[in-house]
Amino acid sequence: MPATAIYSEPVLRRVEVTAPRVEVARPSAAEATATETGEIKIATEHVSISYGERVAVRDVSLNVQARSILALIGPSGSGKSTFLRCFNRMNDLIPGASVQGEVRLDGENVMDPDVSVVELRRRVGMVFQRPNPFPMSIYENVAYGPRRRGQNDKRKLDELVETSLKRAALWDEVKDDLRRKSGLALSGGQQQRLCIARVLATDPEVILMDEPASALDPVSTLRIEELMRELREAYTIVIVTHNMQQAARVSDVTAFFTMAEDRAGYLVEVGPTGRIFTRPNERLTEDYISGRFG
Amino acid sequence: MTATTGRVAGGPLGPKPSLRRKTSRGSLLADRAATVVLWGTGVFVLALLGAIIVHFAAAAWGVVSPSFVLSDPSDTGLGGIGPLLWNSIYMLALTMLIAIPVGILGGIYMSEYAGENPITSAIRFAEESISSVPSIVVGLFGLILFVDNFKWGFTVLGGALALTLFNLPLMTRLSEQALRAVPQEERTASLALGATKWQTIRHVVLPLAIPGLITGVILTAGRVFGEAAVLLFTAGLGTPPHYDFTNFKTFSLTDTNTAWWHSSPWSPLRPGTTLSVYIYKLQSEGLGVYVNQIVDGCAAILISMVLIFNLGARLLGRILTRRLTAA
After folding, report:
1. In a domain, B8, yes or no
2. Which residues of A touch B323 (CB under 8 A)?
3. Tens digit of each residue's pLDDT (9 = 90 or more) over B9-55
């Protein structure tokens, strides 16, 4: 995997764990990488997320290159999933959650109050930990997003359903009973690929995956990973995973999160996957990937 | 069951008594007892329903016939219950016409929009309180409001509105519960696909809540069919005249002669004694020779109507679920 070709080294910085943060003059992550060749799809700047009083994620700045896979790894409670959900503003749905900082999609801050979350979520799709097809036919599951956008042309829908299922590597398994079979009648791995097809049908640019294979058997997991590698050609993917081998296998860039003493998650370091797993800059990262904690 | 208890004393598992000692005699007994009690309760409820049906089927044998169901009541002979059955159905339709949409919309609001705060807990408390107000009191309220204050007199509409008052809170509460029972992840999945909140409710939450909503409709409808107290004071308990089903005159603002729309079965502004009220009336004051047969016949018809309605509602629910989740 030519990870380094895709990824440019961001500014690494330590995050003070206990002392109040002092802003040190330093180039922002965006500035540091904007000069590089790769196109930045998502840039986060000083993103902090809290649930009521509790800070769940503190001051994360990182960039995601277009058409690459970024893996977020780290122990449970380090805020990876919470951080992922601010990319499509799913945190809006949690009462009491608040997000500070900027998340820019193609330069546009998605946190702006006048951003339409509906439009945002069409551009930034999401696949969840537990496969969650709707209790509808396979066809209707895939057609759900397009239909909600007003696409009712039967021929176009048929076409969209077929291409989406093909892209999600599910077409051959389900093409004979698209309309008869419920999405829930599929196996776990098939359900998850159906959920991916459902997202693809909305024609997103970014796909967020929150531990997409953690509920699947090894064979299904491998298929999802292969699929991710294929999708990477056209989409920007951010994946949260507990499985370090998975991060090493599929991602171009890995970001390691852990939590501070006040249980707030923060970004320890981010870099090309190859380097993070062989020569991490931070002791914490090394301890985690070598299994000494977490 | 028997296999488990049989092996406790000395099974073929070999010399490892510690394994077996864990399921003590006491907990095994409790387990058996629970099974027996729960089974017994279920059987008892079923038997009760069966007994009621069998009793009235037997009592109504020879009474219920097509002519009994369709013809007008008679002062001298057995007569029939046609107009009363019609009034029950008409009353049900009118009440459900208001209660179903408003109840479901209220349930949607309470479940999806209102959230948890002191006001919504107050609303929930009010819903539960109104549902448990004695129905005779609701009838009195209807009497004061619709009959006296609005000067409608005894009307089907007044009865239907009083019934709505009585049933709407229950319908709303049950709708809310049905909607809340839809897993949150279904909503999340839909919203994450870029559906709006209303689209999510319309295309995911409502279809999945249909079985629960149907339960609400059935419970509410059962109360409408069976209710007598609310209707005594609002829809009246007089023996209805002969209904002319070709008379579509419902009411007139200029002609105050009520006689010709009182004989129109389609008019909501006429008195409308229902089957339940008629049973009450006959049983309490009926002096004719055939009173007992007529009451038994009415009861049998009432039970059949409730069963038919419940089965019909379930069937409709299944069809609706299929259609809503398919398109």
Report:
1. no
2. none
3. 455 655 556 655 566 778 888 999 999 999 999 999 999 999 999 99
Mean pLDDT, to the nearest integer, of B212-216?
Answer: 89
In this complex, do B194 and A126 lie within 8 Å of one another by their Cβ atoms? no
Instruction: Provide the shortest C-alpha distance from residue B254 to chain A (in Å).
Output: 50
Are the Cβ atoms of B193 and A149 closer than 8 angstroms?
Answer: no
- Name the domain count of chain B: 2
Rounded to an integer, the average pLDDT of B301-305 is: 90
List, for residues A188-244, the tens digit of each pLDDT value.
999 999 999 999 999 999 999 999 998 888 988 998 999 999 999 999 999 999 888
DSSP B250: -
Looking at the structure, tell me whether residues B52 and B194 fall in a common domain. Answer: no
Q: What's the CA gap between A115 and A232, in Å, rounded?
A: 26
Counting the structural domains of chain A, the total is 1
ipTM of the complex as predicted = 0.83
Annotate chain A with DSSP letters as a single string: --HHHH----------SSSPP-PPP---HHHHHHTSSSPEEEEEEEEEEEETTEEEEEEEEEEEETT-EEEEE-STTSSHHHHHHTTTTGGGGSTTEEEEEEEEETTEETTSTTS-HHHHHHHEEEE-SS----SSBHHHHHHHHHHHTT---HHHHHHHHHHHHHHTT-HHHHGGGTTTSBGGGS-HHHHHHHHHHHHHTT--SEEEEESTTTTS-HHHHHHHHHHHHHHTTT-EEEEE-S-HHHHHHH-SEEEEEEE-TTS-EEEEEEEEHHHHHHS-SSHHHHHHHTTS--
Which CATH number belongs to the domain containing residue A102 in this structure? Answer: 3.40.50.300
CATH of the domain at B73: 1.10.3720.10
Q: What is the pLDDT of residues B155-189, one digit of tens each?
A: 899 999 999 998 999 999 999 999 999 999 999 99
Do B253 and B283 belong to one domain?
Answer: yes
Whether residues B51 and B106 share a domain: the answer is no
Domain holding A69, by residue range, is: 3-18+25-289
Residue B46's domain comprises 20-61
Query: pLDDT tens-digit profile of B310-325?
Result: 888 889 888 888 777 6
Which is higher by pLDDT, B37 or A12? B37
Q: Tell me whether residues A148 and B196 touch, CB distance under 8 A.
A: yes
Residue B149 resides in a domain: yes
**A93, A121, A140 member nearest B194 (Cβ):** A121
Cβ atoms < 10 Å from Cβ of B30: 11
